[in-house]
Design goal:
Elements lengths: L3 H4 L7 H7 L2 H17 L6 H25 L1 H4 L17 H22 L2 H21 L7 H5 L1 H4 L1 H10 L4 H24 L1 H6 L5 H4 L2 H21 L8 H23 L2 H6 L3 H29 L8
Length: 312
């Protein structure tokens, strides 16, 4: 896509700018959840194949991020949070970002098929397609439920990691998918509570823009409550156990408590204090997901050490 305001600012790009196209902070979540999915799967790849598979999944996620920045350059330019990204700031041209994303997409999918299996590669390819075409090009600009449906793209990495080892799907993979999928709306809606003006300026129909902040607060509570059973169900699966359950109970208590607090917030008070509680809940949402996957990692470690767990 082209935009005169962007093209007029184009200047030579460096490697750091291309790395920024990969959305490294988002990529870190992709790497972590994909690695847990891979390590939790029964059987196993060689250490080298495992590391390369995780790297390729990360590159695929980064490729989707680059294509997202190419397509969304016009609205990124209007939002304070995204205006300094490589494309809207003019550090990388839209065409270069598009070509970079396409090349990395093909390489990551093709190499994952060779290193692991074509089932995992196919799922990685579908994930890139879903994020770029279904979410970025369609849902994001057309419906306030964009992040609910589009959140599936961020929930696929642990499934891809699992498939890289097993070549198939399972209840455990479905539960890890469900955990990230149900976590995504409260996470992003809490961001939109204090970034509403950005979305309004860019004409992105986030729930805060179309339905207002009070309705968004209620939906955050609803989805948080619905998230709890999925998060706890993992404790009773083949990848869970007492350690994960303990962590999950504590984090879910804090998350639900935070969501109730947001729901009860008076909008005038929230505006006056600079949406401090909303920002705190957003940070808590990051800790929540990270903590749960750390719990799964601890369970995996205990199993490798031969330490019995409570349930399996």
């Amino acid at each position: 896509m082209s935009d005169a305001a962007i093209v007029s600012k184009i200047r030579p790009a460096n490697l750091g700018n291309y790395f920024a196209l990969l959305k490294p902070r988002v990529m870190s979540l992709v790497v972590f959840t994909a690695a847990i999915g891979l390590l939790a799967a029964p059987g196993g790849l060689s250490p080298l194949a495992s590391m390369v598979s995780i790297l390729l999944i990360a590159i695929g996620g980064g490729a989707a991020g680059a294509l997202n920045m190419w397509w969304d350059a016009d609205i990124d330019l209007l939002m304070r949070r995204t205006a300094n990204r490589p494309v809207p700031s003019g550090r990388v041209s839209p065409q270069a970002a598009r070509n970079f994303g396409l090349v990395l997409s093909v390489l990551s999918v093709g190499l994952l098929g060779l290193v692991a299996n074509w089932v995992a590669a196919g799922m990685l390819g579908f994930t890139i397609f879903f994020y770029v075409v279904i979410y970025t090009m369609w849902l994001k600009r057309s419906t306030p439920w964009n992040i609910v449906i589009g959140g599936a793209s961020g929930a696929f990495p642990p499934v891809i990691g699992w498939m890289a080892v097993t070549g198939g799907f399972s209840l455990e993979a479905a539960l890890m998918f469900g955990l990230v999928f149900m976590w995504t709306p409260p996470h992003f809606w809490s961001l939109s509570l204090f970034m509403k003006d950005d979305y309004s300026r860019a004409n992105v129909p986030m729930l805060t823009v179309t339905h207002g902040r009070p309705a968004t607060r209620w939906q955050i509570l609803v989805y948080t409550v619905l998230l709890v059973p999925t998060a706890l169900a993992l404790a009773f699966s083949a990848v869970g156990g007492a350690v994960y359950l303990t962590i999950a109970l504590w984090l879910n208590f804090r998350f639900v408590k935070g969501a109730v607090g947001l729901w009860q917030r008076d909008e005038n008070v929230a505006k006056q204090d600079g949406y401090k509680a909303e920002k705190k809940f957003f940070r808590l949402s990051l800790l929540y997901l990270f903590g749960l996957f750390v719990g799964l990692l601890l369970e995996i470690t205990l199993r490798h050490l031969g330490v019995p767990t409570l349930f399996f």
